[in-house]
Specification:
278 residues; two-stranded antiparallel sheet; 9 helices; globular
């Protein structure tokens, strides 16, 4: 029987064309809550240790205020951010649209028996707002979102940490987030699969250099998506296959069956099997 196949998607820039509005709303929320000038915030996310909502929020506060935010302040950032997202998408729905061809791709993958998951550096509520606004039906898919490792709520909420705990909290890495979704998919696979073949290499689809890097570290097949058609940073992280969108469904599906981890660009190792990662 055919091996079980797993594919995991990032959200921003991968399922939804929302990177612009997302960045603007997040920097506006930081400016309001942290009382810093929005123009002073470096929006080159590659310069940050963790390119996730949680990690960026902690580092922006550290860079501009010399300290980590309290959990209460993180909650204020989240509330401001989510409200701004809803407001700006409502003002102009074109700010949040599906990546072309994504509906047909998700339908084709489901029909062909792929197990599909989400692994996003966005906070869960942010990801859900964008998916719903873009009309991408993914609420039923298992997923993991931005969170802190010390927070028992791995779904990305504010959790029950005391207000002073953020200073010692460690943001989940992109690898942690992907690995958590893999765990969920492997768990459901082992309980329901009738396949006698070992699972094939899981795949990750994303748009950022951090996505390619995480796929390489976890030894996952990788497909890059760049709706802006700018491939340089993905190529620099070793991405072998990059599409602008999913409109050539046959080409994308073919690439998925052949996807390999990004080329090595540094001495990094990782495994996709359970129990590995950070």
């Amino acid at each position: 029987m055919p091996a079980d196949r797993i594919v995991i998607f990032d959200v921003d820039g991968t399922l939804t064309a929302t990177t612009g509005v997302d960045d603007h709303c997040l920097t506006s929320a930081w400016s309001r809550v942290f009382a810093i000038r929005e123009a002073d915030i470096d929006t080159d996310w590659t310069t940050y240790a963790h390119s996730t909502d949680e990690g960026l929020t902690l580092e922006v506060s550290q860079r501009h205020r010399g300290r980590a935010p309290t959990r209460e302040e993180v909650g204020e950032v989240q509330r401001a951010f989510f409200a701004l997202l809803r407001e700006r998408i409502a003002d102009d729905p074109s700010r949040c649209i599906p990546v072309p061809g994504v509906h047909d791709l998700l339908a084709a993958l489901a029909a062909d028996g792929w197990r599909i998951g989400l692994a996003s550096g966005a906070w869960e509520q942010s990801a859900r707002i964008k998916l719903e606004s873009a009309g991408v039906h993914a609420a039923h898919l298992p997923g993991t979102f931005s969170h802190t490792k010390t927070n028992p709520d791995t779904r990305g909420g504010t959790g029950s940490l005391p207000a002073s705990a953020v200073a010692t909290a460690i943001p989940a890495t992109r690898e942690d987030i992907i690995q958590s979704t893999l765990t969920k998919l492997f768990s459901s696979q082992s309980s329901s699969s009738s396949s006698s073949s070992p699972p094939s290499r899981p795949l990750y689809i994303g748009d950022g250099p951090w996505d390619a890097r995480a796929a390489r570290n976890l030894n996952l097949g990788f497909i890059g998506i760049r709706v802006d058609n700018h491939h340089a940073r993905l190529h620099a992280e070793g991405a072998r296959t990059i599409f602008q969108d999913y409109t050539d469904l046959h080409a994308v599906l073919t690439a998925l069956t052949r996807a390999e981890p990004p080329h090595a660009v540094a001495c990094r190792t990782g495994h996709w099997a359970l129990g590995t990662g950070h």
